[in-house]
TrEMBL record:
Pfam families: GerE, Response_reg. The modification 4-aspartylphosphate is found at residue 60. This is DNA-binding response regulator, NarL/FixJ family, contains REC and HTH domains. PANTHER family: TWO-COMPONENT RESPONSE REGULATOR. Residues 9-124 form the Response regulatory domain. Keywords: DNA-binding, Phosphoprotein.
Length: 219
């Protein structure tokens, strides 16, 4: 990243102030630094105030004794946010569920500053990043290689195949071009994490046809 590159910004949702402060300190010590725009114990840290503008949301899944907060993850993903799940949970099921729901990254809190900073920069660029815990989950995944795409991700993907530009996709679906890009980036990340990278539009078309998401007649 050059000195002229934009600073990566983050909103942190974690109900332990010490953890949030530690994350902020790690980001401040990074070279170049990552800027925390907001931090708090609930959704408002990312969906209201300065946190709305953050490039990346770092989300603790365990915000209540009721269990993992996958509902909040769904809400953030639906808003087009790039979310890194950062949690004490270290189960394969939690990692794979988070990715299926649209998280761009999953780290356990045992993985430390270097992995969190690297994952944050990758998420801001909408690139996959695989820390050790996630690598173990992906290696242990015995599900079919087809990634689990959300309904809206499929809608955007199909519309993009049928339109000449992302602007036309945005107009058709009533969303912004930025949101179109977010959904397409998320689809690419899911395919990359499934071991079937699709870096170009042609590759995505091929994957979609292989997985039955679109037919040749529709193209």
């Amino acid at each position: 990243m050059t000195p002229q590159s934009p600073v990566v910004t983050v909103a942190v949702i974690d109900d332990h102030p010490v953890v949030a402060a530690g994350i902020a300190a790690w980001y401040a010590a990074a070279d170049p630094p990552v800027r925390v725009l907001a931090a708090g114990p609930d959704r408002s840290a990312a969906l209201h105030g300065p946190g709305r503008e953050a490039d990346v949301v770092v989300l603790d899944l365990q915000l209540s004794p009721a269990g993992p907060g996958f509902g909040l993850l769904r809400e953030l993903v639906a808003e087009g946010r790039a979310v890194i799940v950062y949690t004490v949970l270290d189960t394969e099921d939690a990692a794979l569920t988070a990715l299926d729901l649209g998280a761009v990254g999953f780290l356990t809190k045992a993985e430390g500053a270097d992995h969190l900073v690297a994952a944050t920069r990758a998420a801001a660029a909408r690139l996959p990043y695989t820390p050790p815990a996630l690598a173990g989950a992906l290696i242990g995944d015995r599900r079919p290689g087809r990634p689990a795409l959300a309904r809206r991700e499929i809608d955007v993907l199909r519309a993009w195949f049928q339109c000449e530009s992302k602007l036309l996709v945005a107009q058709r679906l009533g969303i912004s071009v930025r949101t179109v890009n977010t959904y397409l980036d998320r689809v690419r990340i899911k395919y990359a994490n499934a071991g079937r990278p699709a870096s170009t539009k042609a590759h995505l078309v091929a994957r979609a046809v292989q997985d039955g998401l679109v037919s040749l007649d529709e193209l």
